[in-house]
Design brief:
This protein has 19 helices and 10 strands. With 493 residues, the chain is α/β, with parallel strands linked by helices. It folds into 4 domains: 137 residues, Rossmann fold (3-Layer(aba) Sandwich); 37 residues; 97 residues, Beta-Lactamase; 193 residues, Hypothetical protein af1432 (Orthogonal Bundle). The chain has a 5-stranded parallel β-sheet with strand order 2-1-3-4-5, with helices on both faces. The chain has a 5-stranded antiparallel β-sheet with strand order 7-6-10-9-8. The longest helix is centred in the N-terminal third of the chain and has 37 residues. The chain is elongated. The mean pLDDT is 83.
């Protein structure tokens, strides 16, 4: 912070001092007071003063004498002095100039004139101080520095010699790296301001242009239009210092307009003292084609598997017409719960497939038991409970990207171990099976059965709420309740 200028006001009348201080203090000046010439000289010896406002007529030492003594002091000889006086005679002013004052102000003092004269003389003082400092530094630099200058010259000569060695080493290093870069099998391209400024042989072979054609052109000329925005966004964000994925893929256009997939690994560098991007490119066209073929194959398999699952669903429902649509409704609700819980799309798809066939084991149960209109006996109920194991046996050797057999096997297990057929507890049960259990109970209680009328959705939800964290997984139960009570979910095929 710039220091405030310090002004010494000298006057034997306090009212005059207070008036001048009232003008100056609001302008940021620091004020020191003195009521006589003797006190003024004392204040000068003990403070760093930048300017004096000095009354002339005072008892004891008058303003003229104070001015003469200040000018006789080597350190204060250039200190600005303004005589503030009511004397108007020419002889009085000549006497002040001969004593060494810099300016006059007539009493009563005008505020504007005071401020202008003070600012002007403070500027002169600042310039004088600067010149004195410069002269002192110059004298110090010249006087007695011969040995230092000699040593500095020797150091300079040594630095020049070392710089030459470094430059020679750098030249050899650059030559070595240029050879490596030029002969690298990986395409290396340097771009600056979205323009190609360097490309190695592998890069030329990849794109198919000569260096003469390639380097003057913007890089966007060689990027597939559908990928242009993405590449430009990566480039700009990387140069701005943002955290951008360094490796990604896009398509380039060769000289013959052929499309190639490339994988790029980019980094920000300095190229001729300006920001640039160093890009390493690999041709991954064959890999992308193989991935696309694999994706198509997997999609065909997925559709074939879904068709097979559909046949299984139809088979179950043909034997148990009263539960027609049950499996589909359970699958839909299970997927909705999984989505509410934030499970991945892949797990949700697996839940859908498992939900469609979770009761496939009922194929082994006599149809007359499945459609019995009265309450089941203990033996009949125990037989129906076998459908989880039967479903597992049917599915355990089926190739699938999801644990369908285990989900079907566990969908009647309960968190406290009271379920069947394995009496599993807590984390022993797959998350997908915990979700299926809740969806199965809600749909079964809310729907009609041969041996009873539908109990209703509210009864089903109360069952889930009451046994949340006991029989049913707490997170699954919360997601299910939220779907129905906050998001208006409804059971539908």
């Amino acid at each position: 912070m710039k220091a405030r200028a310090v002004i010494l006001i000298v006057d034997d009348h306090l009212m005059n001092i207070e008036l001048l201080e009232a003008y100056l203090a609001p302008e940021g000046y620091e004020i020191i007071r003195a009521a006589s010439g003797e006190e003024a000289l004392e204040k000068l010896s003990g403070n760093q003063i930048d300017l004096i406002l000095l009354d002339v007529i005072m008892p004891g030492i008058d303003g003229y004498e104070v001015t003469r003594r200040v000018r006789q002091n080597g350190k204060q000889r250039l200190l600005p002095i303004i005589l503030v006086t009511a004397l108007q005679e020419k002889e009085d002013r000549v006497k002040g100039i001969e004593a060494g004052c810099d300016d006059f102000l007539s009493k009563p003092v005008d505020r504007v004139e005071l401020l202008v004269r003070v600012r002007s003389l403070l500027k002169v003082k600042a310039y004088n101080d600067l010149m004195i400092n410069y002269r002192n530094e110059l004298e110090a630099a010249v006087n007695g520095r011969t040995e230092e200058l000699k040593k500095a010259l020797e150091n300079l000569q040594q630095d020049i010699a070392e710089r030459k060695l470094v430059e020679e080493s750098l030249r050899k290093s650059e030559e070595k790296y240029r050879i490596v870069v030029e002969n690298a099998k990986e395409a290396i391209i340097v771009t600056q301001d979205m323009q190609v400024v360097f490309v190695n042989r592998a890069g030329l072979d990849m794109i198919g242009y000569s260096e003469k054609v390639l380097t003057p052109q913007p890089i966007i000329n060689f990027i597939h239009p559908d990928d242009l925005d993405m590449v430009a966004d990566h480039h700009v964000r990387r140069l701005n210092g943002e955290d951008v994925q360094p490796v990604y893929s896009f398509r380039i256009l060769g000289q013959d307009k052929t499309v190639k997939w490339v994988e790029i690994n980019a980094a920000v560098i300095k190229w001729k003292e300006k920001p640039a991007t160093l890009n390493f490119l690999n041709d991954i066209t064959e890999r992308r084609q193989a991935e696309e073929e694999l994706h198509q194959t997997l999609e065909k398999l997925r559709k074939a598997f879904a068709s097979t699952v559909g046949v299984m669903v139809s088979a179950v429902e043909m034997r148990d017409p009263y539960t027609a649509g049950h499996q589909v409704r359970v699958a839909n609700l299970a997927c909705a719960i999984a989505a509410e819980m934030g499970l991945s799309d892949d797990k949700i798809e697996g839940l859908r497939m498992a939900g469609f066939i979770h009761d496939i084991g009922k194929l082994s149960i006599p149809a007359e038991i499945l459609s019995k209109p009265t309450k089941l006996t203990n033996n009949e109920f125990n037989l129906i409970k076998e459908h989880s194991l039967s479903g597992y046996e049917l599915l355990k050797n089926v190739e699938s990207p999801w644990p369908l057999a285990q989900i079907v096997y566990q969908h009647h297990e309960r968190m406290n171990g009271t379920g069947y057929p394995q009496n599993l507890k807590g984390d022993e049960i797959l998350m997908e099976a915990r979700i299926m259990a809740v969806a199965d109970v809600v749909e079964a209680m809310a729907s009609h059965r041969p041996y009873r009328a539908a109990l209703g959705i509210e009864t089903a939800l109360e069952e889930i709420r009451k046994n949340k964290g006991i029989i049913y997984d707490a997170a699954v139960a919360d997601a299910c309740l939220k779907l129905f009570r906050e998001k208006g979910y409804k059971l539908s095929a």
